[in-house]
Amino acid sequence: MSRTLSAPVTVAFDYTRSVGPVLGRFLTGLRDGRLVGARLADGRVACPPPEFDPVSHQAPTEFVDLAGTGTVTSWTWVSEPVAGQPFDRPFAFALITLDGADTPLLHAVDVSSADEISTGMRVRPRWGAERAGVITDLVFEPDSGTAAPASAPTGTDDVTGIITPISLDYTYAASPEESAFYRGLAEGRILGQRCPKCQKVYVPPRPACPTDGVPTSEEVELSDTGTVTTFCIVNVPFLGQRIAPPYVSAYILLDGADIALQHLILDIPVEEIRMGLRVKAVWKPREEWGTTIENISHFAPTGEPDADYDTYKHHL
Amino acid sequence: MAKKPAAVIGVGQTHHRAKREDVSMAGLCREAMDRALADAGMTLDEIDAIVVGKAPDLFEGVMMPELYLAEALGAAGKPLLRVHTAGSVGGSTAIVASSLVQSGVHKKVLTVAFEKQSESNAMWALSVPVPFVMPVHAGAGGYFAPHVRSYIRRSGAPTHIGAIVAAKDRTNALKNPYAHLREERTVDMVLASQMLWDPIRYEETCPSSDGACALVIVDEDVAKSSPNPAWIHGTVMRSEPTTAAERDQVNPQAGRDAAAALWKQAGITSPIDEIDAAEVYVPFSWFEPMWLENLGFAAEGEGWKLTEAGETAMTGRIPFNASGGVLSSNPIGASGMLRFAEAALQVRGAAGEHQVDGARKALGHAYGGGSQFFAMWVVGAEKPTN
Amino acid sequence: MRDVAVVGFAQRQLQDYDGSPTCAELLVPIFGECYEQTGWTKKDIGFWCSGSSDYLAGRSFSFVSAIDAIGVLPPVNESHVEMDAAWALYEAWLKIQTGEVDTALVFGFGKASAGVLRRTLALQLDPYTLTPLWPDTVSIAALQARLGIDAGEWDEAAMADVVNRSLTDAEKNEYAVRAGGSSVEDLLARPMFADPLRKHDAAPVTDGAAAIVLAAGDRAREVRERPAWITGLAHYTDALHLGTRDLTRSESAARAAAAAGGTDGVQVAELHAPFSHQELILRRELGLADDVRVNPSGGALAGNPMFTGGAIRIGEAARRIWDGTADKVLGHATSGPALQQNLVCVMEGQN
């Protein structure tokens, strides 16, 4: 058995970027099948244009249409592409100094092996048919003879914003202490741990007691009943939400624990939920259990009298 | 060894909006920076070092954006630092920038904090599910609402106190041309708004804004060039855990400790009498009474009484957020620096329509994480004597 | 300026660390080693400052629970940079220079293996014109390496020589995740990964954490006979834009070295060069003499935990002062694509 539990997490969002006037000129050019540079304060032409001049610190105002053809000034062979790159097979990334520009642009060059690219090689753009005004509207290819011209642009308004999808895959691991807790849940047990210094019982246990900076250690099996210390009623829907609102997110101080756990409260009208309410875990059917707190579907009232405020006020 | 004197001589901020679709991230930062430099009568080339602050990189989907921004911010060829202390970051960033001057390392430092929240969605970015954990999280509002409920229970405050704060801050914002929300709100209108994260209502909630704030912080010599420097009288940062057994989440010890250390540094014995204006991080209305107590302006459980009595209004004993505060503009990474900046504007007599009459000493305050990171400063119209 | 020294250092470097992204489990024993080295407890630490990255961990506010490893009730004076911990060290040094505190503990942590590191780092590029192409960090470094080769600044053999020396030295570093020298010929016979880079030209993906203790004046002297006194500390950045800077140079590294008082007399230099050719750039930009011993730890090619790799170079350099093997050393840290941002920390046995 591995020391810790792990699970995949994908962090994905389609970012909406407003681009401002300078990048807007460049990206509008891409949408129209043109490469646009800007003249810098020192006289050089840069493509892509910097939003603010490195010397004058002002936004460039003189834009230059470039032919699009250029020369490779450096290159590398991407032998194992990663997700999102312009090709899902090996390809070249290159620094390309476009004719009429003084500084290079980084882009992909479509060649089938590293032997087909070299410093000094001439390249030209190959435009996509549907262009959104983004850097992925084109790739470069060896400049051998006549290039196909860019197709007519699909829009006429200036590009003021772009959408950039970003999706990253991670493996999330729980600490060894938390892993013990989640494994306990897979057996229907709630396992806390006591800090060897302050003697407080943490649930879930911690790789470091936040008061003492040492791992919690001595295992303490906790009851699945407890007291609602405080709570909030979530009425807001939002992207990525896993539970349909409205729901009650509550801090539940399990009997025997020194810190409250967050969970759902159900089986009671929302307006009757209160601080001090005594609740008990409602477990999902055993065949649905995994190493997760979601084995507990929710907490529901026990029917006992409410806990006295003094018994939980120091947990607020 | 004493810190070397330092003062704010330039303040700039953007017009904060839900979506600043007219600018890129660089353009947003430069709008605030160029205003701060103009205020200081300085050019970017004169600046010795640049300190950037912002909250989570997931908001904009750029890892350490100060790297790609370096050139646009004029930081190429200079020292560049990037601070991130959660919601308190705007304040912490100003403190790090101050320390560059107070240590004697630099004379002219520019600091900028920003957030362009419209690039993504803050609720999403703050609620990416963690495996194995119960997915009950619902953004910052969902996080803080239970603790607001605890405050109400502990203090016995009447339930309309939050609405008083919201109506006051939103009304103050009408006098601030940079504020995001500039619509008059009455207590009744706030009370009638939807309950989002019960007990927090829609109108008691900060907006999600695009915005930036910048400061020019200089040493004693350079400050002579300014007609109205805001002198830094004290800076403090304190941190505690997000969660711990029996941790006080309503009146966190880190905030209490920070305030006590701050008042001591600034030579203040009675905060409510000596602070003329306070810009305090109140993203949800109830945090005004909570922080009144945490900062020592009121005894524990008594903060709401100052609010109810109108003492936190612009004409009250301790004006809170004359600018409209976080409740009116909230570009998260910049929100803390805006508090520090607005405090500086007050003691410089430069707050325009929302100037508190005769303000000589002001508090800038920011907090972040689960009410666990605190950053504060006191600025004054006079050079500190100690 | 106050006299400030590095007096404590502890580290962990691992491949495929199986613990949590906040690395609290690593930080607890690391802090323990720092206390043991100094004879202090957490109450002796005046200021804490850490460096880490949300994107490395894959979630917002990933650093907030790392401070649990300190034990932060009662609360502490603490800050965080979204940078390598070497810059956290800079912030802590400033804090000591203001006179507010006399001691600081700086730490960094990162679990690079949680994601696909070379892809994640594409998010450090210009979000409008570069990131949508997902240029991975190895490709960017390869473009830089070829520019230098084409310009005759270095060649593949010189790069292999750096690798061979690093991996040979790494055999004596218990924390190295990649070690074992062979020969330049053997290295050059291995296949290209990102032409002209072979896999060994790039630092291995490394997880880890590290901590450094700083102390001023007598607080430093009470800890060690030979504290590593910081006699120069400076950092600069260049523009990221790959087009507007000369990638075969690192102007910011040269500036940092000059601002740190130059490198005359430096005997040992720990350079944070995640790619072999970058060591060659740095040697020149920092003005290191030919007899300077570079990266006796094996350097970043033997292990490069993200967000601590730079701080570890400072710690490794400081150790050479403590044990008397050198009188003047240099620790260097880099951040950003292709050596964009650089920090130099010069330390001496006598101040």
Task: Tag the structure with descriptive keywords.
heterotrimer, A: 316 residues, mainly beta, 2 domains, 5-stranded antiparallel β-sheet, C: 351 residues, alpha/beta, Peroxisomal Thiolase, Chain A, domain 1, 11-stranded mixed β-sheet, two-stranded antiparallel sheet, 11 helices, globular
The total number of structural domains of chain A is: 2
Measured distance between first and last alpha carbons of chain B: 11 Å
Low-pLDDT runs of chain B: none
- Secondary-structure-based class of chain A equals mainly beta
Short synopsis of the structure:
Chain A has 316 residues and is mainly beta.
Structure, described:
The complex is a heterotrimer of chains A (316), B (386) and C (351). Chain A is 7% helix and 37% strand. Chain A has 316 residues and is mainly beta. Chain A folds into two domains: 20-159, no CATH class; 171-315, no CATH class. Chain A has a five-stranded antiparallel beta sheet, with no helix packed on it. A five-stranded antiparallel beta sheet of chain A has the order 16-15-14-17-18, with no helix packed on it. A three-stranded antiparallel beta sheet of chain A has the order 3-2-4, covered by helices on one side. In chain A, a hairpin with a 5-residue loop joins strand 2 and strand 3 (45-46). The model of chain A has no long low-confidence stretch (mean pLDDT 95). In chain B, strands 3-2-4-7-1-8-11-10-9 form a nine-stranded mixed beta sheet. Chain B has helices at 25-40, 66-69, 89-102, 122-126, 139-155, 161-173, 187-192, 220-223, 253-265, 271-274, 287-294, 303-308, 325-328, 332-347; strands at residues 6-13, 49-53, 80-83, 108-116, 195-198, 200-201, 210-219, 230-239, 277-279, 361-368, 373-380. In chain B, helix 3 (89-102) packs across helix 14. The N and C termini of chain B lie close together (11 Å). Chain B is α/β, with parallel strands linked by helices and 386 residues long. Chain B is globular, with a radius of gyration of 19 Å. Chain C is globular. In chain C, helix 3 packs across helix 11 and helix 6 (156-170) packs across helix 10 (276-285). By secondary structure, chain C is of the alpha/beta class. The longest helix of chain C is centred in the N-terminal third of the chain and has 15 residues, at 24-38. In chain C, the strands form two sheets. In chain C, strands 1, 2, 3, 4, 7, 8, 9, 10, 11, 12 and 13 form an eleven-stranded mixed beta sheet that branches. Chain C has a two-stranded antiparallel sheet with strand order 5-6. Helices cover 31% and strands 23% of the residues of chain C. Chain C has a domain at 4-115 and 205-221: Peroxisomal Thiolase, Chain A, domain 1, CATH 3.40.47. Classes of the chains: A mainly beta (316), B alpha/beta (386), C alpha/beta (351). Chains in contact: A-B, A-C, B-C. At the A-C interface, strand 1, helix 1, strand 5, strand 6 and strand 7 of A face helix 1, helix 4, helix 5 and strand 5 of C.
